[in-house]
Amino acid sequence: MIIVLKADVEVGAPELVPLIELAESYPDVRTEFHRIQGATRSVTEVYLLGHTGVIPTEPFEEFACVEKVVRVTEKFRAIGRHGGDLDAVGFEYNGVQISQDNFHPFPGLCAVDTKENVDAMFRALAEHGVKTTRAGAYKPRTSPYDFQGHGAGCLPYVFELAGKHGIRIIAMEVTHESHIEEIQEALVASGGATGVMLQIGTRNAQNFELLKAVGQQTELPVLFKRGMGITLEESLNACEYVASAGNRRIVFCLRGMKTQLGDPHRNLVDFGHVPVVKRLTRLPVCIDPSHSVGSRALGSDGILDIFHVTAQGVIAGANMVLVDFHPRPEQAMCDGPQALLMQELPRWLEDLAIVREAYQARLDRVSVSPASPDHS
Ligand code: PEP
Ligand code: MN
Fold first, then answer.
1. Average pLDDT value for residue range 75-104
2. Is residue 291 scored above 80 in pLDDT?
3. How many other CB atoms are there within 10 angstroms of residue 191's CB atom?
4. Nearest-CA residue for atom 10 of ligand 1
5. Cβ distance 322 to 171 under 8 Å?
6. H helix or E strand, kind and range, residue 178
7. What are 73-88's pLDDT values in tens digits?
8. Could you say which ligand is closest to the alpha carbon of residue 254?
9. How far is the CA of 335 from the centre of ligand 2 (A)?
10. CB of residue 110 inside a 6 A radius of ligand 1
């Protein structure tokens, strides 16, 4: 059961004492506070944990400090919206607000290779006012003979260059629990030059020990990528491991699904699920057009497939987009063939602005005349 408090009620307010006493007077029930940072307001929620099925909601609804009481279903307890009764949860990290209501591009390197390429990438981002990027130091590769990433060794120069070019957040994959500490230590050694969002790749979507490990620390937010060969429900349950371990600063990322059907793309693009994930969960939703499409295939209209699917996700309300760029794709040690070129950055950003604006115009229209949910 979740008790949503009125907006101005803080954790520790004296008026909460009788409410907590009442909750904990039921056998085997304990309480936990969560401060939820929304795009426009913050609210405090009290979670009642344990045998709550028999507890009536009415006595809690009578408290003046309570906005509403929501009975949670078993499914997606921590990340779910529970039938739309709970608002989305955004968060602020290193000066950047991320929520279901806003949008941030994360263009960058699939894998860090040389210091020069990192510098060129970050410099281009800074020139275009982009403060969020991706950069892989630990790469999960299909073949053990492929480049595995420079690991902890590259972190000092990556973080220093990020600081130099004003990058606030780097999405960076971790494939082992030990990488979390390596990143945290390198961030401290850099004097907090930048921030890192820990990325869980599709291959680790059900690595439950790794999910618990990123969930047990609350300093760094988590970008959870959908599993490529499991159901959406299984991916959402896996993501729940992060939240239930304690870290609620999570973004859910769609990155395409593996099919056996000889698709023209590396994965079947699944950005039609952007509104689905926003409806089922409280989390901001990211799309990854690079790892879905997997090539620089060009449409007959002269627009790259990667640009097209980026637009499809953004016009459907995506909150973040992760995309591969490289200053010299022919030298890239991972995923060069799908990388966008530096000279394509301004047009990609322009395209984003067009479709984000179109999404907002679509939203304005529904606020005037909302559609009914179904006709069954
Ligand atoms: C990546 O983003 O570098 C990556 C490996 O993606 P995914 O886990 O979606 O394949
Ligand atoms: Mn890649």
1. 91
2. yes
3. 9
4. 202
5. yes
6. helix 177-189
7. 778 889 999 887 888 9
8. 1
9. 5
10. yes
